[in-house]
Each structure stands twice: as structure tokens, then as C-alpha cells.
Amino acid sequence: MENLSHSEENYLKEIFHLSAQSNDRVSTNHLADRLNAKASSITDMLRKLADKELVSYIKYKGCRLTDEGERIAVQIIRKHRLWETFLVKKLSFGWEEVHEVAEQLEHIDSEKLIDSLDHFLDYPKFDPHGDPIPNKDGQIEYRSSKLKLIDVGIKSRVEIVRVNEDSLSLLKFLEQQELTLGTVIEIMEKFPFDDSVRIKVNGERNINLSKKVIENISVKLLDE
Amino acid sequence: MENLSHSEENYLKEIFHLSAQSNDRVSTNHLADRLNAKASSITDMLRKLADKELVSYIKYKGCRLTDEGERIAVQIIRKHRLWETFLVKKLSFGWEEVHEVAEQLEHIDSEKLIDSLDHFLDYPKFDPHGDPIPNKDGQIEYRSSKLKLIDVGIKSRVEIVRVNEDSLSLLKFLEQQELTLGTVIEIMEKFPFDDSVRIKVNGERNINLSKKVIENISVKLLDE
DNA sequence: ACTATTTTTTAGACATGACTAAATATTTTA
DNA sequence: TAAAATATTTAGTCATGTCTAAAAAATAGT
Ligand SMILES: [Mn+2]
Ligand SMILES: [Mn+2]
Ligand SMILES: [Mn+2]
Ligand SMILES: [Mn+2]
User: Which of the nucleotides lies closest to B45 (Cα–C1')?
Assistant: First the structure.
């Protein structure tokens, strides 16, 4: 309901993401790191957001979203992921190109726009990176398991369902290797000395993947 | 090329529109009026834009866009009109609902986005109000004649090709009366005492239109 | 040509969001 | 548990974009 600045919205969104990982209060430095800002700037903004009752903020103890703050954060994430989906599905963007533009588009303020877009895209459940898209009411259908490729045992067959979108170069690499969502992978061999693995892709070709790669890919187990 | 604030972009756009009407320098007060800001704010901003060589500004004499300023203004207008077209054509917005959202979308900074959108829309020549959409190179195909409905003689048959988008209520009225782009009109009678007219719409029904309405509709003559 | 009116600029202020450097709290380590 | 290291806040500054009120310039009216 409130009218927030782009900056305020980015803070809420980032607090939501960090809370999801640790479920503890989010620390000032952690936020500073993610938002590419100085800790002092974070303190200032947390005060403002606390005044607006969008976060609970305790000096030296970090912050946490209020219900209202979380509601808003989820709506911004909804917009972000719907726009990313639009860019890939309708405008033929690559999955490594969409995040930057979505960072801008997520701040457009029009409920009618986003609901129309949702309809136009036929109510997609996941964005191009496999992250769930909150619905109009803010509900998020998380995947039942959060299995990472790095934790999969040898000889298991799995399907790629999500990749961490944070690294542009990872996305480019995966695209180039044709390791997109839906790709079926079998773990052929594990190399403990550097945590890399050898995999078979779509039952066809074998390739090696480094630890850095496989810890950023989420999969689901395929039963034989 | 430069990175401009939303505010700076809005100034450039408005200077462009006002220049198109008067082709004289644009006055501080005229801008203040259109931008809903005080004259002193305009002076401040014109100084800044002059520093960036986007306008030529002469104290007490008003301003005018430089070539670079005009280039940027046209690109913003291109974005605005393409987004309006997208909203109507793809998301089923009414023509009276699009301007407000386009005011936000026009500031999204991504050349790839706007060129993809242009392609997706199949390179439209006109926006939902009949205004020409500049192409990628900034070229604008203006209509050959700028005939307004108010200047059309009795018994002439004309087609609506453009409406002034500035008034929400006018757009709603025209929509409701089914006076949309492409509608064919014949002037049946003119009433000099209030400059209103009686017209026949699509050869079917007769209605009366006030001066306020007919001075905001542009038409093209249909030869018999 | 002088005065009145209108337009525009200047001066000074405020809100926002960010920064640096210094001070203070908290946590870690020995 | 006391010093060292780390994390966080405070104090003071800056840039941006806006405003009000007062001063100055341009224009209009007699
Ligand atoms: Mn993203
Ligand atoms: Mn994503
Ligand atoms: Mn418009
Ligand atoms: Mn328009």
C-alpha cells in the first residue's frame, strides 16, 4: 500500500532473501555486503524501515521483516520473476540476460500490469532459473526437496530444476554446455580431492563439473 | 549514452513536446506548468541540463534541446509509445489506462529490451492514441496532414487517426461512445454558437460533440 | 518614458540516500 | 576475563531534486 522508493524496496527484498537462508535476524554487515553499500548506510535505512514498521530492528542485533514488510518483499519478488519469465518466454532473452533488466522492472508500480502479465504468461509457476513465482496472494510453492547436485550420490539420475542466478558467468557456462532446466544428469564418478564430478548428460555425453558448478545447481531425483 | 535520472529524462521529453508546438525557445513558466513544478526548480534543472550539453539555455530566454538532448528525448518517447502499444495489444489495457504506466516504463534502461519489444510488437508505426512511434534510429514518420476534427467542413467524410491522450476523461468518453481510431465520421451540422457539431458515426448513428471534444481529435479526409 | 505586471532568477531551506571517519558495542581468542 | 578483533552505530558531509520568499529582469500599458 505504501509508496516506497526503489532503495527501500531493494532492502526489503534482500532482507527476505537473507532471512530465507538463515532464519535468524539479518545482520547489518551481511546486508551491506549484498547491497553493495556501507554498513552505516544500512543502519540509516533500517531505522527508516523500522519507523514505517516494515522491519523489526534491534540495535546491534540486526533486523527481520514484519508481516507487512514480508508481504511487500514477496510482491517485489513476484514482479521480478514474472518479468524475467516474460523476457525469456516472449522476448527471447537468454537466462543470463534477464536479471539486470528485472532489477529495474520489479519497481514498476501497477497491480493491474503485473496481474495482466501473469495472465499473459499463463500463470507460470517458476522463473527461468527455476525459482518459484509467488502468486497474487503472495503464496510461494516451494519445491518439496532442496537437493543440490553436489549432494547427489553416485549413479543417481536427476533432473536440473533450478540454478543459482547470482553468477552471470555460471549461467553463460551452463547455457553453452546445454545444461538447462529439465536436463537429465547421471552422476558417473566423484572426485573427492576437489569435489568435482563426472556426469552423463541426457544419456549422451560425459562432462566434468567443478565443485563451484555443482553446488549451484538444484535437482530432483528421478526414480528408475 | 549518459546516465540520466528519471527527472532529467522527463524534462527532456517535455521540452521536446513543447518545442514541437511552438518551435520557439521553451519558457521556464511553460515548463513549470507542464511538469507540475515551480519555476525555480525549472531554472535549477535547466542549468544542470545545460552543463551536460543536453539543452541550450539562455537566462531569461528559455531553452531548446541540443542535438544530443533531442536524440535522448526521442528515444524516451519511443519507449513510452512502444510500452503503451504493448499494454493495449498484448495485455488488454484500455487506451485510457496506459499512459500512467508508460510514464514509469519509459525510464527502463535497456536497448535490447526496447528493440526486442519493438520486434515482438511487429514494429508498430503508431501508438494506441495514434501518435507516431520513433524507430530505433530516432526517425519519426509524422502524418502528412494535421487536420483536426474541429476544422473539418460540413458534409466531409473523415476517419479518426489520433486523439489527444492528455485527458483521461476524454479517452474514456470516446471509448464509451465507440469513437476509436479508424472510426469513420461525417459532419452533418455545425453549431456556430458553441462550436459543437452533429456527426454521423460509421454511417449509422448521429451524435453531438462539443468543441472540447472535436478540437482533440485528429482525422484524415476520405475521398469519396 | 515611466510605471505596473508578469516572468524568471537567486538565496536559503529541506528531505532523501549515500559516504567517510571516529566512537562504541559485541564477540573472539588467548 | 582482559585484550584484540570485528561489527555496528554515530557524527558530520555531500549530491540530488524540490520548495518558498525575495530580488531582478523583461514586458505591457498608459
Ligand atoms: Mn533475478
Ligand atoms: Mn530468477
Ligand atoms: Mn502517453
Ligand atoms: Mn500515446
Answer: D17
